[in-house]
Each structure stands twice: as structure tokens, then as C-alpha cells.
Amino acid sequence: MTDLSVKWAGLTLKSPVIVGACNLTINPQKAKEMEDAGAGAIVFKSLFEEQVQLENLQTERVMTQYDERDPEMISLHPKFTHAGPEEHLMKFANVKRSVNIPVIASLNAIHKDSWIEYAKKLESVGASALELNFYYTPRNIDHNGNDIENEQIAILREVKKTVKIPVIIKISPYYSNVLNFIKKLTEAGADGVILFNRLFQPDIDIEEHRNIYPYNLSTSDDQRLSLRFTALSHGRFKTSITSATGIHDWRDSIKMLLAGANAFQIVSTVYKNGINQITKINEGIKAWMDVNEYETIEQFRGKLSQQQQKDPYAYLRAQYIDILLTSGDVFKQNMPI
Ligand SMILES: Cc1cc2nc3c(=O)[nH]c(=O)nc-3n(C[C@H](O)[C@H](O)[C@H](O)COP(=O)(O)O)c2cc1C
After folding, report:
1. Residue 45 DSSP label
2. pLDDT tens across 147-177, in order?
């Protein structure tokens, strides 16, 4: 009997498929459909510091104060001015009541006090785990990387002291040594790390001479960074590793599991293909496991991680050099010159 259940961040999930934070998971009916389609867990969309401040101060001034920091968030959540934290907590509780699978709360704060206060509140409305989004857009050239990391680690330590539920950190790939940062997160008590968030980047409209914030869903091509760092992480840390970004079908999912992921998150594929894509992914993994005679995911998880590789250079720099030096002909065939 093929078993898709996995251990993840101290919880047992019936499937490694987690629907990541997005605007679909705030709807109780859709959350139930995701559960029925076979999702192992869902992440309710993030509560942002900006929502907290807006409720506290009810002023536009606060919005513009943060514009410079995360312009993509403003475009990503154009309606959040109408949803304060109390409403967010209420909606979270509604979704939590509508399903039996774990519902993870996601928090994206700035000030230490907000992280602590809302971590506590999200736990009190029934969050099964807490996802902290660590994302910093540098604009002060004197703020060095070590200080930024230390501030984030301090927040994690405080949140861990405050709540009893598992705490998972969703990070961007933009750390100078991602593995070292995962090590620090693990030492500070992170129950899981998500590799990686996909940050919405501003663009420029050259006709209108203005910034624009295009809203792009990912494709499978976007998964490589996550695949590489999942494979580099497997076996090195006791924290759970969740792959995220660019995972669209069962093939992508199996790659992440072979690289060593404990679970993985999907969002864009649910927007593109509907909630039924969760079922298709589970069925695809099961069929592949049957063909390869695996009964549990643990039997093959990490089989192609870096530490398990016969080729010690897999996922490392040497492979890149090799591709550039030996595969030039492949590119030449497809080029007009
Ligand atoms: C409409 C939409 C809303 C999102 N909202 C959030 C959010 O509230 N918090 C968050 O951390 N990520 C949010 N994300 C990012 C996703 O959780 C995910 O990290 C990203 O889409 C990459 O995964 P994918 O390639 O499967 O889409 C959102 C993405 C989309 C498309």
C-alpha cells in the first residue's frame, strides 16, 4: 500500500503537498476543496506589518512609509488596506474550523513587537504552525549582512519563546551563504525552513516612464534554485526542509523529494490548473512510487541530494564550469549565428 504521509516540522502530513500562502487559502470553501483534493496542509495568506500599522493608526502616511521597503507587497495585496489584523484573525479561525488538515499562519512583520504580538494571536486562533517571512530589501548601504541576519535570528528566538506551535521560516535566496543561514536558523530553534519565497520585483514601463508591478505566476523553470539548495541542505540540518517556487506537477514534486525535501509548497500551479492539480500531483507521485517499488516517501527522499551523490560535484560550481566548457555545441545548434 503506497503511503504518501510525511513527517514535517513536528507534524504528520497525509501528503507532502502544501498549498502555500496565497489569496485562495483565505476562503473556507476553497480550503475544504484543497483538503478533499488531498493537500497535506495549507498556509493562510500572510498577515503583514502594514495591516497591523494601518489598524493602529488608520493613516495613509504609514502606507507610503513602507512603499520603499516592499513595493511588491503593495501590488501583491492591493486590497489589504481594507483588511486589518482583527479581520485577518477572524478569517483565519473560519478557515481553521472548515478543515481537519493543519492550517499554517503566515506572518510578515517589521518591528519586533509586532512579530511577538501577532505570533501569539495567530497561535490563539488555532494556527497549527507559524510561518515567518524573513525578507529584507536593503536600501541603507551601511547595514551589513551579518547585522540583518542577526536581527532575523533574534526575532526567531523571541517568537520561539512566545509560542508552542512549530515555527517555520520562509526565506529568500538572497543570503551570501544560504546554508550558513539555515544552520543559524536551525540552532535558533526553527522547526522548518522554506526554500524559497518568490519575490515580486518591480519593472519599468518605458512608454509611460513609470514603475509597474507586474503580477507573474511562476513556471517550472523557476524551481532550480530551490532544487539545488534542497539537495545541498538534505542531511545537514535537523530542521525540516520545504521546497517552494516553480513546483507545478508530479514530476517537479518527485524531483524535490529526491533532492531531500520533507514537503513542498505549490501556489502558481493551483492558480493555473485549479485545485484538482493537488489530486493529480498525489496520484502522479503514487504511480511513480508503484513503478519504482517504493511504499513510503522516506524510502527515496534525498536519494539525489548532494551528500548521496556519486558525483561529488553535483550541485556545485564545478558542474557549472563543466556545462559551459563542454556543452557549447548544444547551444550553438539552437542559435541563429
Ligand atoms: C496571488 C498570490 C498571493 C500570495 N500571497 C503570499 C502571502 O501572503 N505570503 C507569502 O509569503 N507568499 C505569498 N505568495 C507567494 C507564494 O506563497 C509562493 O511563495 C510563490 O508564489 C512561489 O510559489 P509558486 O511558484 O508555487 O507560485 C503569494 C503568491 C501569489 C501568486
Report:
1. P
2. 999 999 999 999 999 999 999 999 999 999 9
Candidates 218, 199, 117, 219; CA nearest to 158 is 117
Task: Residue 161: name the closest of 120, 132, 122 by CA.
Answer: 120
Q: List the chain domain ranges.
A: 6-301, 305-337
Number of Cβ within 10 Å of residue 110's Cβ equals 17
The answer to whether residue 6 scores a pLDDT higher than 50 is: yes
Which residues, judged by CB distance below 6 Å to any ligand atom, belong to the binding site of ligand 1? 20-23, 45-46, 76, 106, 133, 170, 197-198, 217-218, 222, 244-247, 266-268
Q: What are the Cα distances from residue 100, in Å, to 46, 103, 248? A: 20, 8, 25
Report helix, strand or coil for 189: coil
DSSP state of 25: T
User: Residue 262 in contact with residue 241, Cβ under 8 Å?
Assistant: yes
* pTM for the model: 0.90
Q: Whose CA is nearest to atom 21 of ligand 1?
A: 267
- Dump pLDDT digits (tens) for 270-283: 999 999 999 999 99
Per DSSP, the three-state class of 88 is helix
How confident is the model at residue 285, as a pLDDT? Answer: 98
Whole-number Å distance, alpha carbon 198 to ligand 1 midpoint, is 7
Q: What SS3 class is residue 4?
A: coil
- One CATH from 3.50.50.60, 3.30.1490.20, 3.40.50.720, 3.20.20.70 for 6-301: 3.20.20.70
How many A from CA of 196 to the centre of ligand 1? 10
